[in-house]
Design goal:
By secondary structure, this protein is of the alpha/beta class. It folds into 2 domains: 2-104 and 214-247, D-Maltodextrin-Binding Protein, domain 2; 105-212, D-Maltodextrin-Binding Protein, domain 2 (3-Layer(aba) Sandwich). It contains 11 helices and 9 strands. The chain starts with a helix and ends in an 8-residue tail after the last helix.
Length: 255
């Protein structure tokens, strides 16, 4: 009798263990900025799911668009944005203790692979290159696109550039536009240029004109799966993930 009970217990153990894992598994809803960090997310999120048993559902969109949705009450567990979530912390949308910095990408210039590389070595050279270009692609709603339009104002050529500009509605479109010949050059985040095979990075903007797109993340104060959300952010800040971010053009931020 004891032997039969023991055998039954042994057979039941894997089922009980599996039930425990399933009970602890969570669906983590993530709002994530598009393009620049998508390759790293595509690599590490499946690893996280296999390791933890959690399921991650990601909605990709421009950072400023996601900010507006979060402020309007969108439901989410984790936000990973091409902006600093510090403002969302101040507004009571992100838990302060969960903020992480994943890295930053500089603004650069891209052309079609094999095309002549324009001179962008100095502010004046960059300005001349813009004025001589037939068309320039940039992000329509993203952080880099907003910075670029302000930069044109600073350089005093905003009016001259109006007919040359090709605003792109999707985050990786500026690089895609040069890759397909729709634009002669693109001004966007370096990580976005590196992510498109047929686009080629000319270089970053001159230091006097440079800006960075910062990628940060945090868990929502109303998150249903806060613990799993923290686990995901921790997974994305391991040395292995940091190396993958750096390889994709998102460099670490030194405190």
């Amino acid at each position: 009798m004891r032997k039969s009970l023991f055998n039954a217990a042994v057979k039941a153990f894997p089922i009980v263990l599996l039930q425990g894992i399933v009970a602890e598994a969570a669906e983590v809803k993530v709002l994530c900025s598009t393009a620049a960090i998508v390759p790293v997310m595509n690599e590490f999120v499946p690893q996280f799911e296999r390791t933890t048993g959690h399921k991650v559902t990601i909605r990709y969109e421009f950072g400023p668009v996601l900010i507006r949705e979060i402020e309007a009450g969108a439901a989410f567990d984790v936000a990973i944005l091409s902006l600093d979530v510090e403002d969302l912390i101040k507004r009571g949308k992100i838990a302060a203790e969960t903020r992480v910095v994943l890295g930053r990408t500089a603004i650069g210039v891209g052309v079609r692979k094999g095309a002549p590389r324009p001179d962008i070595s100095t502010p004046e050279a960059f300005k001349r290159t813009l004025l001589s270009a037939k068309s320039v692609a940039h992000s329509r709603d993203g952080s880099s696109g907003r910075y670029f339009l302000n930069l044109l104002e600073r350089l005093g050529i905003a009016e001259d550039m109006k007919t040359k500009l090709r605003p792109q509605p999707i985050a990786n479109s500026p690089a895609q536009a040069v890759a397909t010949g729709q634009a002669e050059m693109a001004v966007t985040g370096i990580a976005i240029i590196l992510a498109v095979p047929d686009a080629e990075l000319v270089g970053s903007l001159p230091s006097e004109l440079q800006s960075y797109v910062l990628f940060t993340g945090g868990v929502g104060v109303a998150a249903k799966e806060a613990e799993a959300g923290r686990a995901l952010l921790n997974f994305l800040t391991t040395p292995e993930a940091a190396a993958a971010f750096k390889a994709s053009g998102v460099e670490p931020v030194v405190p």
